[in-house]
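Good morning C.,

I know you're traveling, so I'll keep this short. The sequence:
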Amino acid sequence: MATSSLPLPVSLNGASYLESKAVRETKGLISELCHQFYHLGWVGGTGGSITIKVHHEDVTKSQQLIVMSPSGVQKERMVSEDMYILSPEGTIISAPSPKPYPHKPPKCSDCAPLFLKAYQMRNAGAVIHSHGMESCVVSMINPGSKEFRITHMEMIKGIQGHGYYDELVVPIIENTAHERELTDSLAAAIEAYPKTTAVLVRNHGIYVWGDSWISAKTQAECYHYLFDAAIKLHQMGLDWSTPNHGPIKAIKGRSRSVALSSNLRSDINSKPFPRYIVVDIEGTTTPISFVADVLFPYARDNVGRHLSATYATTETQDDIKLLRVQVQDDLEKGVAGAVPIPSDNAGKEEIIAALVANVEAMIKADRKITALKQLQGHIWRTGYVNNELKGEVYEDVPEALERWQGSGIKVYIYSSGSRLAQRLIFGNTNFGDLRKYLSGFFDTTIGNKREARSYVEITESMGADHPSEVLFLTDVYQEATAAKAAGLEVIISARPGNAPLPENHGFKTVNSFSEI
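The tokens, ready to paste straight into the viewer:
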């Protein structure tokens, strides 16, 4: 095996390290996985590839060596000696020795530049490139689509950062004649979709990455399952992208097969009803009094108990870190009610007391900040689990959600409350679990609700071809103005107890969803 004299990362001992147990095991693992993936149909015909970083406790992931499978090799016959070893920057440190005819001269994977992008941009620990038939065909069903979307499928839970009720979005890039020519478009997709752990290549396959080889493998299996499910649902005339996976239906003027009936048209300039509806919660689907008089007091009264009971958990420690950053910023800006939070070296009770004081001040000021909303969501979750809370929606909401979904319209929630808090409200309402009607949830991590850019991001995230395909329902004039500036259609909800609107505001208003 040929080796170079290039310097290796700190604490790795040159050529001797290349023969170490960690490197040998990683090379053997890639060989084993390639054998498995061959029988799954992911790496047939010498296609596909795998790369894994060599774990070393004393070396940060960004500086760990890279082991990569070769190109043009029968993947089911590969052995450890066929692997390449690369530096963290992608320079070949060790290459396999040539084999006699009919084997081709050794060549590192053509996927190497793309693998490096996943390592560099996502701090991945492993990347898998599959030519699985499912990943190829699913990208061809809608040749004009730039994304694959699916929701309400159990295997979505196997994708990092996603749950059953979330909408999984996978970007699709166009194929090229040579693998390396995909590098820039793959990097652009990774940047444009910060939550994704995969990129589909149309008519080609998929790249999947994870924190470790286990994470990458698990997610790759889940992606292929979801693609296969989508293809089979499509063959049966069912829409995999909607919560109930019902028959594929059409919006007037669109490419689906069934047109909306005339009574489901908006009376705004006689335009066809939008393909997407984005709905606010407080004052729109849910009385303001429920949020102000039930949820906020519950969070305020139970914050201390929640922090004490869950203090050592990773989730609560993450909440505390967010609060520390927010409070420090508040102190620097002189925000009223902000008090210093003792360092981690202080006692638990002292830290919790300071946290409670800050959270109470934030709730009193009704601040729309992620640090508060995330913690509130976790507190409310306990309340719902203990049957101390029950979500409340107006009586016209369930019928409207069912009607819209049945018409092929995708419905999303956009609220200042966390996505968890949103799912809790709609999953535990006085009318039962309504999440089956919802395609996804957006919170302020996508942007402030009073800024037009937030609605542009939502429109793009949903995959709408044009902002006018989206109808936004809210009770807040400033939010309506921002959405309109982004090109969305807007209707203002004029529910009892909502704030008065300016005169001559220029928006259509409704007192009930039954009027839409």
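Safe travels,
E.
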